[in-house]
Amino acid sequence: MIDRPTSRRARPHLSRAPGLVGLMLIIASLAGTPTPAGAQARYAQVDVHVRPSDPQPGDTVTVETRISGCVPGGTTVEVYLTTSDGASGSDALMGRADAITTLLFRTKASVSLPNAPEGWYGVRVVCGQFRPARGPMANTIFAVGANPTKEATLSGNEVTRGGTLRFTGDGCPGTAVEFDLTPTGLHAAPFRAEGLIPVAPDGTWGTDLLFADNTSPGPTEVRARCLIPAKFGDTAYIYYGLRRVIVNPVITTVPPASLPPTPG
C-alpha cells in the first residue's frame, strides 16, 4: 500500500501537475461524449468465464464476459445455445445483457441463464459496426452438461408395417418432443418432424409410435428432439440419439388353389 502524505504542504497542487490534469480532462471528455456507431471498426475480443465452472442441466449459469476492442458505450452481449440435426445447425438466443464500460475502459457484462438446458453455448458481442453473424463467436464456446444423462428408448428392434412400438424418453425441460422416421443411411437429412409427444412435468415423455402402412420397409432410424421455447422468441432443441428398427412388410398368406375333383 502506498502511504498518502498527511501534510497539506506535501501534497502537490494540481497546477504543478499538468500531465495529471490533462489525463483527467481526457477521461472526462471521453466519458461524457457519446461515440458514434460508425467509429467501431476493429475486431472485438471477448474472454468468457462461466459459474459454476462445471455447469449441469438445470443450473442457473452465470456467463461473465470481458470485452476488448469495443468503443465505450453501446455494447451488447448475447449467449446462444447451438445445436445440430446432423445436416444443419441452429442457434437459439438464450440470454442478453448490455455491457458496462468503466472509466478505465474495461468493458464487461454478466448474463444469467436460469434452468439452463444441456448443450453447447457461445457468446456474441455487438458494438458499433462490429456485428458478427448471429450465433456464437469463435473461442467463446462452453458446455452445460458435459456428460448428458437423457435417453430415448424403443420397446423393440423390429416392427411390422401398421404396428406400434413404445417410444419413451426423459430429460426434456421443454414442452414437447418431435419425432422423425428416416430410412437408415439418410440420417444426415434435415430433421423433418412427423408428430409431437407431450412432455410431463418431470421431463419424461412417451407414445405408442405408429409405423404406418406406407413406411419404407427395411432399417429405419427413429430420431427425436426436445423443444425448448427460449426467452427471446427462438426455439432451442435437445437432440436424442438415434434408435434403429427393422420395419417388415406385411406378409399376406395366399391359400393354395383347390384342385378340381378327380373324375370317377
CATH superfamily of the largest domain: Immunoglobulins
- Report the radius of gyration as a whole number of Å: 30 Å
Report the strand count: 17
Percentage of residues in strands: 35-45%
* Low confidence ranges: 1-41
Count of DSSP-assigned helices: 1
Q: Helicity, in percent?
A: under 10%
Give the termini distance in whole angstroms: 127 Å
What is the annotated CATH architecture of the largest domain?
A: Sandwich
CATH topology of the largest domain: Immunoglobulin-like
Q: Give the overall silhouette.
A: elongated
Largest sheet report: 6 strands, mixed
Taken in chain order, the helices and strands follow as HEEEEEEEEEEEEEEEEE
Instruction: Indicate the multimeric state.
Output: single chain
Mean pLDDT: 81
- CATH uppermost class of the largest domain: Mainly Beta
For the record, the count of structural domains works out to 2
Find the structural class using helix and strand composition. Answer: mainly beta
